[in-house]
Amino acid sequence: MPPLSSHRSGGLTLFELLTVVALIAVLTTWALPQWQAASLEVRAWLWQRELAGALERARLHTATHGVAVTLCGGGATTGCDPDGWSSGWLLFEDRAGDRACSGIAADGGCSDHGGRVLEVGAGVAAPLVVTANHTVRSGVRYSPEHWGVMPGSFALCAEDQELARLILSRAGRVRRAAGDPVAGCG
User: Hey, what's the torsion of the CAs at 152, 158, 163, 166, to 10 degrees?
Assistant: First the structure.
């Protein structure tokens, strides 16, 4: 009679497979919240960078072209909307001085007064929300006649926690700031 071999074939036992699955579940449970937090931080940084850049370009366009420029919350189809900062923003030449653009016409200008649309910014995806305080909620207007703007701030929030903030000075300059997790986003 041939001797019994104690050599196993190359498969996994049920116990080994369950151990590996349990280990993966534990690691995923630990790593997923960290990954989500890091992802929100990156999205907050990108939002700050994009909106701060648009405000600086608006200021520069007014200085170099001598034309009033407005940056307002909203989108290409909806136009300026004081509650629309989460859906994006419009940067346009505001020759009428009314901080209003009801959408983009076929010629690339505002449909209501023909001011040239310079940029359209992307909005943020859920769970992120952009809020603006009362002084900048209806838009920021840079004018060649007077260089001051109403100071204000924008906040990026997720689930009532402020992740990032942009602060606009009276001179129209933008400063990035960390969010205030205690203040919330009311």
Answer: -20
Please determine, for residue 86, whether its predicted confidence score (pLDDT) is greater than 70. yes
Residue range 62-67: average pLDDT?
Answer: 93
Q: What percent of the chain has pLDDT over 70?
A: 92
The superfamily in CATH containing domain 39-178 is minor pseudopilin epsh domain (3.55.40.10)
pTM equals 0.79
Give me the residue spans of the domains in the chain. 39-178
